[in-house]
Amino acid sequence: MKNIIFFLLTFSVFFTGCKLKESKQQEPKLIVGIVIDQMRYDYLTRFSDRYSENGFKRLLKNGFSIENAYYNLIPTYTAVGHASIYTGTTPDNHGIISNNWYDKFLKKTIYCVDDDIYRTVGNNSDAGKKSPSRMYTTTVTDQLHLAQNMNGKTIGIAIKDRSAILPAGHTANAAYWFHGKQKGQWISSNFYMENLPNWVTDFNNSDKANNYLKTPWNTLYDINTYTNSIIDNNLFEGKFKGETATSFPHDIPNLKVTNGNFDILKGIPAGNSFTADFAKAAILGENLGKSEFTDFLAVSFSSTDYIGHQFGPASKEIEDTYLRLDKDIADLLSFLDKQIGKNKYTVFLTADHAAVDVPAYLQSLKIPAHYFDIQKFKQSALEITKKYFNSIELIENISNYQIFLNKQKIESLGLDKNKVADKLVEEILNFEGIYKAVTARTLQTTRFFDGIMNSLQNGYNQKISGDVMMIPYPATLIRGRTGTSHGSGYSYDTHIPLIFYGNGIKKGVSKSKYEIIDIAPTIANLLRIEAPNSSTGKIITEALK
Ligand code: ZN
Fold it and tell me: Distance from the CA of 305 to the center of ligand 1, in angstroms?
């Protein structure tokens, strides 16, 4: 009998052990989150003929592509996008309501990741005084750390500070971003560390950044074969400072000094290659994917956004940028194969927002498009309060299509805040360019279940947002008539690529509608860990094995 019990015990311990070991082995050694700044969904299809088999197409053919993935929030800006991807929720919960916003408690405009408590690590500038502390919720990277008792490494990398800091979360081992100016270095904040690791210092001491600025930006292939974009020299694109035309080639070596020295690297395709180089150095330097735990590398390619802003989605420059980025992606994937091992890592690729065609270009095609005159609007809003409440001090700030009321002034004049807000909503609809407007009170008391009002509501944070929220017409920008931007809840800004690939991911395509907030809970489920603490997204079950 004793022997039998002993046998059974050994047997069960043996099998439980096997099962545990087996489940551990199935998990990816490394998650690589790739965010491409300002990538529209249609860049996957429009330039597809010229993409290699090893870049975007490798992800599309062997991974799971969500063709109908959308941002369900306003405003579609970089910080908001990155925070929403990684927290699995919208600004009403995570608190990153824009890149910059008016802080009604501090009575000043703040930047999403500024934090004076901290100092720069890597040089003597102020560019590293940053932290993710304005983000109120956890990220999937935080959850991975919590699930592994702080084992495993989570690292964020991007040319833009906010695109490295927010994805890496509150418990990140490191976030690195690019400081251009005279030297061109990757830096960090002492929120993460006291000194840069040797591999970062070595990278900064290498001549890589400089080497990328030694040649003009010319097209990868003969420019006459670029058939998925409009004529190169046109009225809708911006110039580098010192250029006389917007067309190729862009003489980077000679434009460098007038365009902020190493800062020019941010705005050319080489900035993406340079980011990929640094990501690879991080994988080697930190031995990512080599321990018994799962590591997380959050890398964001920012140059696509700078180029998009300057030249617009229809430009030859954007076509060239994506053909080159395809090569960077291919190269990064083959590096992961070698370094981590095929099928031992999982990738997701998405964007932090998309972009509208240059409104002046749309107008030239008779498509309705607008430029919003913010100075005129501010004047007009003051005239409204003067006319109805006999004061020009009732508005504290107007930014991000939000009006912040001066509550102290309103109270001191014995006025009703709700009446002031209601009157503004009623009257500003007469202003050219404002299409819809709603008070914060309406957003607090009414639930919008879909469409653009739902996106506005998801972007409205009761604690920190303004008192009146506005929506302009489709294809409206506040800027000059060259180049483009983003920020709206319309499809051109919200429809983005979303591809999962690698360990734990099925091959396939879905045409069902998903939201950006679904990424974090899906990755959490893949890792069998808890989703971020305020996640409102759902698991994309059809993408998972
Ligand atoms: Zn962006």
Answer: 6
